Amino acid sequence: MIVIFQTIFSVFSFLYLTATAFLYSGLKRLSKSSGKRNTRNYSFSIVIAARNEEANILACLESVCSQTIDKSRYEVVLVDDRSTDRTFKFAQDFAAVHSNVKVVPVYKTMPGISPKKYAVSLGIKTAENEIIVFTDADCRVKTTWLETVNSGFDENTGLVQGITTYSRIEGINDFLFNFQAVDFLSHGIIAAAAIGAKFPLNSNANNMSFRKSAFDAVGGYGLAGSVVSGDDDLLLQRIWKSKKWNIKYMTDASGAVYTFPAKLFNDMFEQRKRWGSKTVHYTRPQMIFLGAIFFFYLCIPASMIAALFFPILWISAICLLIVKLIGEYMLLLPGMKMFDKSELLKYIIPGSILQLPMVLCAVVIGVFFKFVWKGGTYKRKIK
């Protein structure tokens, strides 16, 4: 029995290190190509779906409408997703004095598509320009944002993903903020590494740009439209699967977007459950790849439980933890330097320890049980 356990643990450790080495190669490849820039001037339609964001919407719109490129080259399409607060009014008032801002109300969603995807799809349909740019109503962008996005596109590029980082909320617990900052940044680093390896895994709609023609060519969200989450990851993968376009990652900090972490641990956990719920809708290669990492994670608590009966397996448990840290340092060290977030290095080890049970629980609960989002309770639909 001990030999069986050790064999299983060794196999998944090997798969995990192979996966992280593969992502590391993508990250290094990305850093070598990040200096190439396009010189063509594109026109943009910024699509923002907002629901009950009266506290954030004006600051978001102000930052979005303060770009260094000429206003004639971009429009803002704000889709109000059935807000019950003053979001719609604030947006209308803002649009009244900004000619390149449109406000599109949603009064009722359509069956067969999630509310968020319906809202952004409506925004895309309304958009008039060549490049669609996503961000969220609780985000802030730099004045050089669109200028930097522009440099990432060329005639063969279908989608450009950019980095999003957390801004500190007044009064938030210091450790909770830094733990979330490391965890959230790790998602961005993995996204960048996977795109560099030409095997896109995840994305972030806070800072994602794509051709309207690419969206139309893949049939929009297709069957993935009914999935509650995934307006970013699933679209990224649909465009990648078409094999018609290149996918790029924008590492330039001048194109960064800033958002806010959850104020409470429970809110953060609900967010991670939502993220976990969409992974079963990934393509088969992505599911196999991420599944190997998930089962490696599962081996760690399994080894600790087995060690209660076979004490020699405590060695295996410690080795598994060391392997996890090796893989994370392999990606996070160069990733944090690339995104100028080296101050978070000291939180890798405590973050890694807390991340393990959170990931395992969030994925299982998100896939098989319920999660809360925007005041509603959802459960993943079984295929």
Q: Could you explain how this protein is built, in words?
A:
This protein is of the alpha/beta class and 383 residues long. The chain folds into two domains: 115 residues, no CATH class; 227 residues, Spore Coat Polysaccharide Biosynthesis Protein SpsA, Chain A, CATH 3.90.550.10. It contains twelve helices and twelve strands. The strands form three sheets. It has a seven-stranded mixed beta sheet, with helices on both faces. The chain has a three-stranded mixed beta sheet with strand order 5-10-7. α1 packs across α6 and α6 packs across α12. The model has no long low-confidence stretch (mean pLDDT 92).
Poorly predicted ranges (pLDDT <50, ≥5 residues)?
none
Task: Kindly report how far apart the N and C termini lie.
Answer: 36 Å
What is the strand content? 5-15%
CATH topology of the largest domain: Spore Coat Polysaccharide Biosynthesis Protein SpsA, Chain A
Taking strands numbered 1, 2, ... along the chain, how are they ordered across the largest sheet?
Answer: 3-2-1-4-8-6-9
Main sheet overview: 7 strands, mixed
Radius of gyration: 21 Å
Number of strands: 12
Q: What is the helix/strand order? A: HEHEHEHEEHEEHEHHEEHHHHEE
CATH class division of the largest domain = Alpha Beta
Structural class: alpha/beta
CATH architecture type of the largest domain: Alpha-Beta Complex
Question: Please, what is the CATH homologous superfamily of the largest domain?
Answer: Spore Coat Polysaccharide Biosynthesis Protein SpsA, Chain A
Q: Shape, please?
A: globular
In percent, how helical is the residue content?
A: 40-55%
Mean pLDDT: 92
Per DSSP, the total helix count is 12
